Amino acid sequence: MPSPKEIVNTMMATDLYSQWLGISVLEVGAGNCKIKLTVRKEMINGFGIAHGGITYCLSDSALAFASNSHGPQAVSIETSISHTAKVMVGDILTAEAKELSRSKKIAFYEVVIKNQEHKIVSLFKGTVYITEKNW
């Protein structure tokens, strides 16, 4: 079976959206990962702050990498996010996904995103369905 790092590398190779976001994988292990991106001007909304979709998508990628790192392919079935602080152009966001619970078919995760000042900017939770297909 491939290692968690090999699985995430395989996922990133065809994940054009995560590539467009500029995501870098910092750490990956079974059930967890840490990734980051730098907020660019094309990520800003009409209020002059980062679109909420940026932190959502960063969280979603962290969820995908963490939940698939065990080997079986997993897909999200429910997610939610709370935006706790504004995000600006140039901010460096680090998302850390942690597995909270895992059974044969369902797993739960939390993703915390912090900026370069270690301030929490969003809190995300996700539930995944674990398929029978392996990486």
Can you walk through the features of this model?
With 135 residues, this protein is an alpha+beta fold. The protein has a single domain (4-134), classed as Thiol Ester Dehydrase, Chain A, CATH 3.10.129.10. Helix content is 25%, strand content 44%. The protein has 3 helices and 6 strands; from the N terminus they run ααββαββββ. The protein has helices spanning 4-14, 16-21, 52-68, and strands spanning 24-29, 32-38, 72-83, 92-102, 106-114, 120-134. A 6-stranded antiparallel β-sheet has the order 1-2-4-5-6-3. The chain is globular and about 45 Å long. The protein starts with a helix and ends with a strand. 32% of the residues are buried. The model has no long low-confidence stretch (mean pLDDT 98).
Sheet with the most strands?
6 strands, antiparallel
Q: According to CATH, what is the class?
A: Alpha Beta
Strand residue content? 35-45%
Biggest sheet: strand arrangement: 1-2-4-5-6-3
Radius of gyration: 14 Å
Taken together, the total number of domains comes to 1
Q: Could you say what the CATH architecture is?
A: Roll
Structural class: alpha+beta
CATH topology: Thiol Ester Dehydrase, Chain A
How many helices does DSSP assign? 3
Q: Helicity level, as a percent range?
A: 25-40%
| CA-based shape | globular
Q: Could you state the order of secondary-structure elements as H and E?
A: HHEEHEEEE
* CA(first)-CA(last) distance: 8 Å
Strand elements, count: 6
Outline the low-pLDDT stretches. Answer: none
**What would CATH call the homologous superfamily?**
Hotdog Thioesterase
Average pLDDT score: 98
